[in-house]
Design goal:
12% strand; alpha/beta; Four Helix Bundle (Hemerythrin (Met), subunit A); single chain; binds 1,5-di-O-phosphono-alpha-D-ribofuranose
Protein backbone atom coordinates (compact mmCIF):
# COMPACT_ATOMS: atom_id res chain seq x y z
CA UNK A 1 0.00 0.00 0.00
CA UNK A 2 1.62 3.23 -1.19
CA UNK A 3 0.40 5.25 1.82
CA UNK A 4 2.09 2.87 4.27
CA UNK A 5 5.30 2.81 2.24
CA UNK A 6 5.38 6.60 2.07
CA UNK A 7 4.66 6.89 5.80
CA UNK A 8 7.56 4.55 6.59
CA UNK A 9 9.93 6.52 4.36
CA UNK A 10 8.94 9.80 6.04
CA UNK A 11 9.28 8.30 9.53
CA UNK A 12 12.75 6.87 8.77
CA UNK A 13 13.75 10.17 7.10
CA UNK A 14 14.43 8.42 3.80
CA UNK A 15 12.09 11.16 2.62
CA UNK A 16 12.97 14.29 4.60
CA UNK A 17 12.71 18.07 4.48
CA UNK A 18 9.48 19.81 5.48
CA UNK A 19 8.53 20.64 1.89
CA UNK A 20 9.42 17.23 0.53
CA UNK A 21 7.47 15.29 3.17
CA UNK A 22 4.41 17.46 2.50
CA UNK A 23 4.63 16.75 -1.24
CA UNK A 24 5.21 13.04 -0.56
CA UNK A 25 2.10 13.00 1.64
CA UNK A 26 0.09 14.78 -1.05
CA UNK A 27 1.21 12.27 -3.69
CA UNK A 28 0.31 9.37 -1.39
CA UNK A 29 -3.21 10.78 -0.91
CA UNK A 30 -3.54 11.38 -4.65
CA UNK A 31 -2.55 7.81 -5.47
CA UNK A 32 -4.77 6.38 -2.75
CA UNK A 33 -7.76 8.33 -4.06
CA UNK A 34 -6.99 7.09 -7.58
CA UNK A 35 -6.38 3.44 -6.72
CA UNK A 36 -8.74 2.69 -3.83
CA UNK A 37 -11.53 0.23 -4.63
CA UNK A 38 -13.95 1.90 -2.19
CA UNK A 39 -17.38 1.24 -3.72
CA UNK A 40 -19.33 4.14 -2.23
CA UNK A 41 -18.86 7.66 -0.85
CA UNK A 42 -18.93 6.66 2.83
CA UNK A 43 -16.23 4.01 2.46
CA UNK A 44 -14.13 6.34 0.28
CA UNK A 45 -14.29 9.00 3.00
CA UNK A 46 -13.32 6.43 5.64
CA UNK A 47 -10.37 5.20 3.56
CA UNK A 48 -9.10 8.71 2.83
CA UNK A 49 -9.37 9.76 6.49
CA UNK A 50 -7.47 6.66 7.56
CA UNK A 51 -4.73 7.36 5.00
CA UNK A 52 -4.57 10.98 6.16
CA UNK A 53 -4.17 9.94 9.80
CA UNK A 54 -1.35 7.49 8.93
CA UNK A 55 0.55 10.22 7.10
CA UNK A 56 0.02 12.97 9.70
CA UNK A 57 1.23 10.62 12.47
CA UNK A 58 4.67 10.12 10.88
CA UNK A 59 6.55 13.22 12.07
CA UNK A 60 4.91 15.56 14.61
CA UNK A 61 6.88 18.78 14.10
CA UNK A 62 6.81 19.83 10.44
CA UNK A 63 3.33 21.40 10.10
CA UNK A 64 3.77 21.39 6.32
CA UNK A 65 2.49 17.80 6.33
CA UNK A 66 -0.75 18.29 8.32
CA UNK A 67 -1.35 21.59 6.48
CA UNK A 68 -1.03 19.80 3.14
CA UNK A 69 -3.30 16.97 4.31
CA UNK A 70 -5.85 19.51 5.61
CA UNK A 71 -5.85 21.43 2.31
CA UNK A 72 -6.25 18.22 0.29
CA UNK A 73 -8.95 16.69 2.52
CA UNK A 74 -10.97 19.92 2.76
CA UNK A 75 -14.26 19.55 0.90
CA UNK A 76 -14.41 15.77 1.24
CA UNK A 77 -17.35 16.07 3.67
CA UNK A 78 -19.26 18.35 1.27
CA UNK A 79 -18.89 16.02 -1.78
CA UNK A 80 -22.20 14.41 -2.73
CA UNK A 81 -20.95 11.66 -5.08
CA UNK A 82 -18.03 9.25 -5.03
CA UNK A 83 -16.63 10.64 -8.29
CA UNK A 84 -16.84 14.22 -7.00
CA UNK A 85 -15.05 13.23 -3.78
CA UNK A 86 -12.33 11.26 -5.60
CA UNK A 87 -11.68 13.93 -8.24
CA UNK A 88 -11.65 16.64 -5.58
CA UNK A 89 -8.88 14.90 -3.63
CA UNK A 90 -6.86 14.25 -6.80
CA UNK A 91 -7.15 17.84 -8.04
CA UNK A 92 -6.30 19.37 -4.66
CA UNK A 93 -3.30 17.06 -4.20
CA UNK A 94 -1.95 17.93 -7.65
CA UNK A 95 -2.56 21.61 -6.97
CA UNK A 96 -0.68 21.43 -3.65
CA UNK A 97 2.32 19.67 -5.20
CA UNK A 98 2.53 22.17 -8.05
CA UNK A 99 2.05 25.26 -5.85
CA UNK A 100 4.55 23.93 -3.30
CA UNK A 101 7.24 23.57 -5.97
CA UNK A 102 6.40 27.01 -7.35
CA UNK A 103 6.64 28.44 -3.82
CA UNK A 104 10.23 27.25 -3.45
CA UNK A 105 11.10 28.94 -6.76
CA UNK A 106 9.48 32.24 -5.68
CA UNK A 107 11.28 32.16 -2.33
CA UNK A 108 14.58 31.61 -4.14
CA UNK A 109 13.99 34.76 -6.21
CA UNK A 110 12.87 36.89 -3.25
CA UNK A 111 15.53 35.58 -0.88
CA UNK A 112 18.38 35.99 -3.39
CA UNK A 113 17.65 39.74 -3.47
CA UNK A 114 18.65 39.94 0.20
CA UNK A 115 22.07 38.49 -0.63
CA UNK A 116 24.64 41.09 -1.74
CA UNK A 117 27.57 40.58 -4.08
CA UNK A 118 30.51 39.51 -1.89
CA UNK A 119 28.37 38.19 0.99
CA UNK A 120 29.34 35.21 3.11
CA UNK A 121 26.26 33.24 4.16
CA UNK A 122 25.88 30.63 6.89
CA UNK A 123 23.21 27.95 6.56
CA UNK A 124 22.26 25.13 8.91
CA UNK A 125 20.75 21.78 7.91
CA UNK A 126 19.44 21.03 4.43
CA UNK A 127 16.57 23.28 3.43
CA UNK A 128 15.63 23.42 -0.23
CA UNK A 129 14.01 26.82 0.39
CA UNK A 130 17.12 28.26 2.05
CA UNK A 131 19.49 26.66 -0.47
CA UNK A 132 17.31 27.97 -3.27
CA UNK A 133 18.00 31.55 -2.16
CA UNK A 134 21.76 30.94 -1.98
CA UNK A 135 22.02 29.13 -5.31
CA UNK A 136 19.83 31.73 -7.06
CA UNK A 137 22.10 34.54 -5.77
CA UNK A 138 25.11 32.69 -7.20
CA UNK A 139 23.29 31.94 -10.45
CA UNK A 140 22.45 35.62 -10.86
CA UNK A 141 26.18 36.41 -10.82
CA UNK A 142 26.81 37.41 -7.20
CA UNK A 143 30.17 36.40 -5.75
CA UNK A 144 29.24 34.56 -2.55
CA UNK A 145 30.79 32.11 -0.08
CA UNK A 146 28.98 29.77 2.31
CA UNK A 147 29.56 28.25 5.72
CA UNK A 148 27.55 25.03 6.05
CA UNK A 149 27.24 23.09 9.29
CA UNK A 150 27.52 19.30 9.66
CA UNK A 151 24.14 18.97 11.46
CA UNK A 152 24.54 16.16 13.94
CA UNK A 153 23.25 13.54 14.35
CA UNK A 154 21.80 12.88 10.88
CA UNK A 155 24.43 14.94 9.00
CA UNK A 156 22.06 16.71 6.60
CA UNK A 157 24.95 19.14 6.06
CA UNK A 158 26.51 16.60 3.70
CA UNK A 159 23.49 16.96 1.39
CA UNK A 160 23.90 20.74 1.55
CA UNK A 161 27.63 20.83 0.74
CA UNK A 162 27.10 18.45 -2.19
CA UNK A 163 24.40 20.79 -3.59
CA UNK A 164 26.61 23.85 -3.06
CA UNK A 165 29.63 22.08 -4.56
CA UNK A 166 27.60 21.00 -7.61
CA UNK A 167 26.50 24.64 -8.04
CA UNK A 168 30.17 25.72 -7.95
CA UNK A 169 29.82 27.75 -4.75
CA UNK A 170 32.86 28.18 -2.48
CA UNK A 171 31.85 26.43 0.74
CA UNK A 172 33.34 25.96 4.21
CA UNK A 173 32.12 22.82 6.01
CA UNK A 174 32.15 23.16 9.82
CA UNK A 175 30.97 21.21 12.85
CA UNK A 176 27.85 22.59 14.52
CA UNK A 177 29.78 23.84 17.57
CA UNK A 178 32.13 25.94 15.38
CA UNK A 179 29.44 28.48 14.40
CA UNK A 180 30.49 31.09 16.99
CA UNK A 181 34.14 30.71 15.90
CA UNK A 182 33.27 31.79 12.36
CA UNK A 183 30.25 34.08 12.86
CA UNK A 184 32.38 37.24 12.41
CA UNK A 185 33.23 36.07 8.89
CA UNK A 186 29.50 35.76 8.12
CA UNK A 187 27.32 38.54 6.64
CA UNK A 188 23.96 36.75 6.70
CA UNK A 189 22.37 33.56 8.06
CA UNK A 190 19.72 31.83 5.91
CA UNK A 191 17.93 28.72 7.17
CA UNK A 192 14.65 26.93 6.51
CA UNK A 193 11.71 26.13 8.77
CA UNK A 194 9.58 23.22 9.85
CA UNK A 195 7.01 25.43 11.51
CA UNK A 196 6.36 29.16 12.03
CA UNK A 197 4.14 30.01 15.00
CA UNK A 198 1.62 32.84 15.28
CA UNK A 199 4.09 34.97 17.29
CA UNK A 200 6.80 34.57 14.64
CA UNK A 201 8.92 31.96 16.42
CA UNK A 202 10.48 29.40 14.07
CA UNK A 203 10.86 25.68 14.65
CA UNK A 204 13.76 24.25 12.65
CA UNK A 205 16.53 21.67 12.86
CA UNK A 206 18.16 21.33 16.29
CA UNK A 207 20.94 23.87 16.61
CA UNK A 208 19.13 26.62 14.69
CA UNK A 209 18.34 28.58 17.86
CA UNK A 210 22.02 28.53 18.85
CA UNK A 211 22.98 29.72 15.36
CA UNK A 212 20.41 32.54 15.58
CA UNK A 213 21.47 33.51 19.11
CA UNK A 214 25.12 33.62 18.03
CA UNK A 215 24.16 35.69 14.98
CA UNK A 216 22.19 38.13 17.16
CA UNK A 217 25.21 38.58 19.46
CA UNK A 218 27.38 39.31 16.40
CA UNK A 219 24.72 41.60 14.83
CA UNK A 220 24.39 39.26 11.84
CA UNK A 221 20.92 39.21 10.25
CA UNK A 222 18.95 35.96 10.21
CA UNK A 223 16.58 35.18 7.33
CA UNK A 224 14.11 32.29 7.39
CA UNK A 225 13.10 30.81 4.03
CA UNK A 226 9.65 29.30 4.58
CA UNK A 227 6.67 28.54 2.38
CA UNK A 228 3.29 29.73 3.68
CA UNK A 229 2.17 26.14 4.33
CA UNK A 230 4.84 25.92 7.04
CA UNK A 231 2.97 28.43 9.18
CA UNK A 232 1.14 26.76 12.08
CA UNK A 233 -2.55 27.77 12.26
CA UNK A 234 -3.33 25.96 15.49
CA UNK A 235 -0.80 28.04 17.42
CA UNK A 236 -3.48 30.78 17.19
CA UNK A 237 -5.50 28.81 19.76
CA UNK A 238 -2.45 28.20 21.91
CA UNK A 239 -1.41 24.79 20.60
CA UNK A 240 2.32 24.25 20.97
CA UNK A 241 4.44 22.68 18.23
CA UNK A 242 5.53 19.21 19.33
CA UNK A 243 9.32 18.86 19.15
CA UNK A 244 10.06 15.39 17.78
CA UNK A 245 12.52 13.45 19.95
CA UNK A 246 14.12 10.69 17.91
CA UNK A 247 15.86 7.50 19.04
CA UNK A 248 19.09 7.88 20.98
CA UNK A 249 20.74 5.37 18.63
CA UNK A 250 21.03 8.19 16.08
CA UNK A 251 23.48 9.83 18.52
CA UNK A 252 25.18 6.95 20.34
CA UNK A 253 25.55 3.32 19.21
CA UNK A 254 23.27 0.98 21.15
CA UNK A 255 26.12 -1.19 22.40
CA UNK A 256 27.75 1.88 23.98
CA UNK A 257 24.44 3.05 25.47
CA UNK A 258 23.89 -0.39 26.96
CA UNK A 259 27.29 -0.16 28.68
CA UNK A 260 26.26 3.14 30.34
CA UNK A 261 23.19 2.30 32.46
CA UNK A 262 23.09 5.73 34.14
CA UNK A 263 23.28 7.64 30.84
CA UNK A 264 20.21 8.68 28.81
CA UNK A 265 20.71 9.98 25.28
CA UNK A 266 18.41 12.95 24.47
CA UNK A 267 17.89 13.53 20.74
CA UNK A 268 15.41 16.35 19.95
CA UNK A 269 15.32 16.82 16.17
CA UNK A 270 14.24 20.49 16.29
CA UNK A 271 14.38 23.60 18.45
CA UNK A 272 12.56 26.92 18.66
CA UNK A 273 14.09 30.24 17.62
CA UNK A 274 12.21 33.23 19.10
CA UNK A 275 11.10 36.04 16.78
CA UNK A 276 13.57 38.43 18.44
CA UNK A 277 16.47 36.57 16.79
CA UNK A 278 14.83 36.63 13.35
CA UNK A 279 15.03 39.62 10.99
CA UNK A 280 12.89 38.41 8.09
CA UNK A 281 10.79 35.47 6.97
CA UNK A 282 10.83 35.11 3.17
CA UNK A 283 7.73 33.36 1.86
CA UNK A 284 6.36 32.90 -1.67
CA UNK A 285 3.85 35.64 -0.76
CA UNK A 286 6.70 38.03 -0.02
CA UNK A 287 9.02 38.83 2.87
CA UNK A 288 7.54 39.64 6.29
CA UNK A 289 8.89 40.49 9.72
CA UNK A 290 8.24 37.53 12.05
CA UNK A 291 5.65 39.63 13.91
CA UNK A 292 3.36 39.39 10.83
CA UNK A 293 3.04 35.60 10.99
CA UNK A 294 -0.68 35.85 11.91
CA UNK A 295 -1.36 37.72 8.64
CA UNK A 296 0.15 34.87 6.62
CA UNK A 297 -1.87 32.30 8.56
CA UNK A 298 -5.08 34.29 8.03
CA UNK A 299 -4.47 35.24 4.39
CA UNK A 300 -2.97 32.01 3.08
CA UNK A 301 -4.21 29.26 5.30
CA UNK A 302 -7.60 30.89 5.96
CA UNK A 303 -7.30 30.15 9.62
CA UNK A 304 -8.42 33.38 11.22
CA UNK A 305 -9.79 33.35 14.73
CA UNK A 306 -13.36 32.85 13.38
CA UNK A 307 -12.21 29.56 11.78
CA UNK A 308 -11.42 28.24 15.24
CA UNK A 309 -14.80 29.33 16.60
CA UNK A 310 -16.33 27.17 13.85
CA UNK A 311 -14.18 24.23 14.97
CA UNK A 312 -15.34 24.66 18.57
CA UNK A 313 -18.99 25.10 17.48
CA UNK A 314 -18.91 22.16 15.04
CA UNK A 315 -15.95 19.87 15.87
CA UNK A 316 -17.33 16.96 13.78
CA UNK A 317 -17.18 18.99 10.58
CA UNK A 318 -13.50 19.69 10.93
CA UNK A 319 -11.89 16.29 11.29
CA UNK A 320 -8.35 16.32 9.94
P1 LIG B 1 12.80 22.50 3.44
C1 LIG B 1 14.30 19.82 7.74
O1 LIG B 1 13.97 18.88 8.73
C2 LIG B 1 15.26 20.87 8.30
O2 LIG B 1 14.89 21.28 9.63
C3 LIG B 1 15.01 21.99 7.30
O3 LIG B 1 15.52 23.25 7.70
C4 LIG B 1 13.49 21.96 7.25
O4 LIG B 1 13.14 20.58 7.29
C5 LIG B 1 12.89 22.64 6.04
O5 LIG B 1 13.38 22.02 4.89
P2 LIG B 1 14.39 17.28 8.53
O6 LIG B 1 13.37 16.74 7.57
O7 LIG B 1 11.31 22.25 3.44
O8 LIG B 1 15.80 17.25 8.00
O9 LIG B 1 13.11 23.98 3.30
O10 LIG B 1 14.27 16.71 9.92
O11 LIG B 1 13.56 21.63 2.46
Amino acid sequence: MFVTETAEKIKSMEIRGAGRIARAGAEALRRHATETRAGDLASFRREMKSAAQVLVATRPTAVSLPNAVHLIMAGLEQSVTLDEARNGVIVRAEKFIHSSQHAVEKIAQFGARHIRDGDTILTHCNSEAALGCIIEAHRSGKEIEVFATEVRPRNQGLITIRALNDAGIKTNFIVDSAVRSFIHDVDLVIVGADAVTVNGAVVNKIGTSQVAHTAAEARVNVIIAAETYKFAPRTIIGELIQIEERTGSEVLADEISRSLPHVTVRNPAFDVTPAEYIDLIVTEAGAIPPQMAYIIIREYLGWGIEEFHKIFENPAGHEE
